[in-house]
Q: What sequence folds into this?
């Protein structure tokens, strides 16, 4: 069995309660989580951190920019194009979900409808597949 | 004429003398001759007998001849005059008769004393009898008068004869030979005797059939006109009523000619748009057009109304006279007669407030979804993490309690989702996004989710997918909601060991899904409430407190909005069968702000 590398996950979540739960759940599952509350911070982290493997993204964020703006910015940078994005939001409208999927995010989840571990399993699966 | 001629010719003198003297002379001379012949021979002058006789005869002959010679020519002349006079009278009379005939007039004459009457050939012809003059009794005429008119005619004649009326002239009906009645006008004049008593009455009769016919036609026309006038007045009243109704409508109504020229606006229109009636009449509704209206709205509008169809839009932005704008709901009804469009009736309403409320409602739904789901997510995830042993193993009681929290939270999530779905259905903001789906897969995945409950209750699931279409154009989320609701209900409301059957196939041009069970069933008395919001059957409410009472309501709305139909049969303690029909061609695409979850 291969030695599992520690994945780095960038979490954009403005709800303190949820952000904490997500960070802890990822930590428990052996990820290296970085949590930010605005799209701006997210971009900064992407620029500073040499290796972010995956993004967990809420639609509504603190600040003016939404998750959608963040994805647009990410997709504008070739070096970030291959980073899988998982949108986890309670509120995005159908049109927004469409926009996300058109921009090539990996999946969309309604928070209240999923256990964290289901989502982390999906993320892990996608990352494993990417490596192999 | 005759009299005048006779006046010119004086009666010949000596005429009477001749007529009287000639025979006397002849008589005297023949008497003298006779006497001479007998007496003279007895006298001494017997030998003169012959001479005397001859002389007497000669004398008489000379006298008579002289009389004849002088008088006869005069008589001949007089006779000729008389003949001329007679001829003139005859031709004069003929002229009158011709004139009467030519004028279509019949002539009559009554002898008031004898009761005899003369009717001219023309009059007889008029009445349909042989075309000959007729002498008859007055009763012939009187009996021919229409019973309704007889009294009047009699009176008119009496009044005239009494001198109470200056003339005898009356219209009445006379019966013809064929029993039909003929309208005539009768004008007469009396001839009185030396004593001043009326002797004869004569007159002319004119056939009024044509006149009467014209009169009747005129009368009929007059009646028609009267009727039309009444009708028009009635219509005018109606129109006034409608105008009043339209005038007092709270919705802005305008009427335009086919070329768009405004010919009417009601007070509500004036109030809404700030233009006066005078401002508006003769202008084009474009005066209200604001640049904020999407440009494609107008071609779509013209396409509809020029095809004679009603146009309806809530996408119009109108500008008032003062420049302020409002959102308008506009309906245009083309009013046509046959192929021709007469005018367009537009009804307009300011829906700014309603739109605002709609937006507020949508925002509320969105907000509620966010605000309610976020804490629910927190509860879900933290209880999940407690149960996941990463932070240490809970003791048995703690694990049970957290599991209850987790389960309770799941119910709450379901309820919030159901309420959100109901809001979206009622706001009309839910979307249908069809794509090629595998119905069997969706159904199987729902059954897999339900597997723990099915296993726990040891229920049997019969799957009948043999005739299922391999691909269906449907919204996977909505189809999942449909399967989820029916199957989870069946599992929930069927006793342990019961059987649940699901079939996917086609029926005519519909997709057919059947979900049946042999479970608790629904009491007959509550069948009508089956699809009402928050309805839960009495018998299951006692067995199970969970359930929102929203599932069937949502499913029905989805199926019907998708052009499908839903029905069921159920008997308490026997089971329930649901029949779901959806268009086989697929669910229709429907744009909306949100899908259902």
A:
């Amino acid at each position: 069995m291969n030695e599992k590398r520690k994945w780095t996950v960038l979490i954009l979540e403005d709800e303190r309660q949820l952000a904490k739960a997500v960070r802890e759940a990822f930590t428990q599952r052996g990820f290296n989580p970085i949590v930010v509350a605005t799209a701006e911070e997210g971009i900064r982290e992407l620029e500073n951190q040499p290796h972010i493997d995956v993004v967990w993204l809420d639609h509504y964020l603190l600040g003016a920019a939404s998750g959608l703006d963040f994805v647009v910015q990410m997709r504008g940078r070739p070096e970030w194009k291959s980073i899988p994005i998982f949108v986890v939001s309670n509120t995005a409208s159908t049109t927004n979900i469409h926009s996300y999927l058109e921009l090539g995010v990996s999946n969309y989840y309604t928070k209240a409808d999923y256990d964290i571990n289901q989502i982390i399993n999906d993320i892990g699966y996608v990352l494993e597949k990417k490596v192999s | 004429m005759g009299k005048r001629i006779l006046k010119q010719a004086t009666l010949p003198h000596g005429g009477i003398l001749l007529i009287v003297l000639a025979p006397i002379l002849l008589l005297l001379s023949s008497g003298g001759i006779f006497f001479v012949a007998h007496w003279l021979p007895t006298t001494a002058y017997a030998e003169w007998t012959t001479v005397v006789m001859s002389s007497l005869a000669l004398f008489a002959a000379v006298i008579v001849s002289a009389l004849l010679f002088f008088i006869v020519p005069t008589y001949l002349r007089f006779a000729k005059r008389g003949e001329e006079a007679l001829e003139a009278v005859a031709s004069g009379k003929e002229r009158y008769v011709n004139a009467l005939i030519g004028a279509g007039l019949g002539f009559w004459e009554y002898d008031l004393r004898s009761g005899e009457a003369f009717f001219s050939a023309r009059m007889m012809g008029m009445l349909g009898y042989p075309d000959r003059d007729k002498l008859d009794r007055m009763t012939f005429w009187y009996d021919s008068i229409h019973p309704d008119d007889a009294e009047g005619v009699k009176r008119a004649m009496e009044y005239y004869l009494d001198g109470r009326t200056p003339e005898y002239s009356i219209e009445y009906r006379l019966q013809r030979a064929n029993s039909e009645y003929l309208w005539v006008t009768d004008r007469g004049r009396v001839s009185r005797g030396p004593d001043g008593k009326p002797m004869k009455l004569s007159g002319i009769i004119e056939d009024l059939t044509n006149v009467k016919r014209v009169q009747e036609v005129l009368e009929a026309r007059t009646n028609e006109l009267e009727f039309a006038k009444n009708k028009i007045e009635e219509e005018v009243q109606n129109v006034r009523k409608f105008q009043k109704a339209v005038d007092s409508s709270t919705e802005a109504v305008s009427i335009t000619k086919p070329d768009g020229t405004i010919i009417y606006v009601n007070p509500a229109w004036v109030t809404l748009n700030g233009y006066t009636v005078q401002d508006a009449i003769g202008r084009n509704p474009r005066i209200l057009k604001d640049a904020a209206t999407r440009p494609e709205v107008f071609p779509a509008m013209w396409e509809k109304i020029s095809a004679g169809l009603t146009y309806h839009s809530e996408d119009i932005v109108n500008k008032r006279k003062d420049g302020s704008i409002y959102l308008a709901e506009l309906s245009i009804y083309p009013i046509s007669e046959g192929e021709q469009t007469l005018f367009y009736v537009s009804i307009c309403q300011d829906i700014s407030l309603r739109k605002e409320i709609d937006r507020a409602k949508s925002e509320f739904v969105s907000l509620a979804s966010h605000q309610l789901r976020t804490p629910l997510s927190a509860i879900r995830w933290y209880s999940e993490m407690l149960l996941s042993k990463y932070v240490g193993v809970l003791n048995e009681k703690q694990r049970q309690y957290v599991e209850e929290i987790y389960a309770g939270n799941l119910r709450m999530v379901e309820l919030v989702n159901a309420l959100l779905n109901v809001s979206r259905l009622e706001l009309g903001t839910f979307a249908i996004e069809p794509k090629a789906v595998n119905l069997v897969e969706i159904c199987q995945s729902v059954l897999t989710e339900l597997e723990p409950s099915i296993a726990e209750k040891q229920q049997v699931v019969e799957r009948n997918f043999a005739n299922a279409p391999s691909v269906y154009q449907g919204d996977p989320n909505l189809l999942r909601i449909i399967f989820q609701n029916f199957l989870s209900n069946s599992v929930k409301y069927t006793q342990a060991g019961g059987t649940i059957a699901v079939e996917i196939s086609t029926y005519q041009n519909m997709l057919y899904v059947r979900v049946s069970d042999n479970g608790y069933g629904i009491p007959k008395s509550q069948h009508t409430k089956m699809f009402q919001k928050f309805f839960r059957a009495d018998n299951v409410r006692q067995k199970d407190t969970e359930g929102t009472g929203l599932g069937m309501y949502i499913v029905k709305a989805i199926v019907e909005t998708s052009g499908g139909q839903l029905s069921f049969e159920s008997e308490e303690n026997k089971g329930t069968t649901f029949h779901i029909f959806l268009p086989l061609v697929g669910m229709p695409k429907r744009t909306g702000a949100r899908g259902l979850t």
